[in-house]
């Protein structure tokens, strides 16, 4: 298992090092974007007033419900076991609570975790997983929708400090134009696009590549 996790970490590092030469200065600068700082795993920003912004309208929980494919994300320690086909499924339980079911493919079979999310504002929630220890259901917001298209087919979410970031799509396969749009949105929200890595999908991209290289 230790060798397996080390291999995944090495793959993520190699993917980031494959970023275009135009991003070289960002790498040596620590990936500064808009006064913030990002690395392979974003350190986020704790500067008051510089939080990840919410999308500019109230998210309709019923429209947002359903299956999403996580086509790209900031690498997180808790998801190192995931090798491909990461998805999130949501269902509105009431006006302020959403059920959450995250799954992914590993070399040992499917991995699934279930929890709930409590609405905190028009586009922010607190997600908790009962099987994960030391979680506080009353803790701060850890899931904020910062971009959502009109058709509820593409969403970009993260925590307020940008320590996490996820690109969610209703389909596992994005066109080149769509990837370019995603990169622009990610950068406009204060992340370093090279720190986002694509997630291999059976019906989409098969590689792990930095978003800035697409």
TrEMBL record:
Key words, A-Z: Signal
GO (cellular component) term, any one:
cytoplasm
Q: Which organism is it from?
A: Corynebacterium hylobatis
- Signal keyword on record: yes
Record flagged with keyword Signal: yes
Which Pfam families does this UniProt record tie to the protein? Lipocalin_2
**Family, per entry:** Belongs to the calycin superfamily. Lipocalin family.
Q: Which domain of life is it from?
A: Bacteria
Q: Under what name is this protein listed? A: Lipocalin
Residue span of the signal peptide, if any? 1-24
Its GO biological process annotations read:
lipid metabolic process; response to reactive oxygen species
Tell me the ranges covered by the Lipocalin/cytosolic fatty-acid binding domain, including all copies: 59-200
């Amino acid at each position: 298992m230790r060798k397996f996790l080390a291999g995944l970490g090495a793959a993520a590092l190699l993917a980031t090092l494959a970023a275009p030469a135009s991003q070289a200065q960002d790498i040596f600068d620590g990936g500064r974007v808009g006064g913030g700082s990002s690395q392979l795993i974003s350190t986020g920003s704790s500067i008051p007033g510089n939080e990840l912004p919410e999308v500019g309208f109230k998210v309709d929980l019923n429209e947002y419900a359903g299956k999403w494919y996580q086509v790209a994300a900031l690498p997180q320690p808790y998801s190192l076991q995931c090798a491909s086909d990461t998805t999130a499924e949501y269902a509105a339980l009431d006006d302020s609570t959403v059920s959450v079911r995250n799954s992914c493919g590993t070399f040992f079979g499917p991995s699934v975790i279930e929890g709930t999310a409590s609405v905190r504002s028009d586009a922010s929630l607190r997600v908790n997983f009962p099987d994960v220890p030391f979680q506080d259901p009353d803790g701060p917001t850890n899931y904020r929708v910062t971009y959502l298209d009109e058709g509820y087919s593409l969403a970009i979410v993260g925590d307020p400090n940008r320590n996490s970031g996820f690109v969610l799509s209703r389909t596992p396969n994005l066109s080149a134009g769509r990837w370019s749009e995603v990169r622009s949105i990610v950068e406009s929200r204060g992340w370093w696009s090279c720190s986002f890595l694509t997630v291999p999908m059976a019906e989409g991209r098969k590689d792990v590549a930095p978003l800035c290289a697409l």
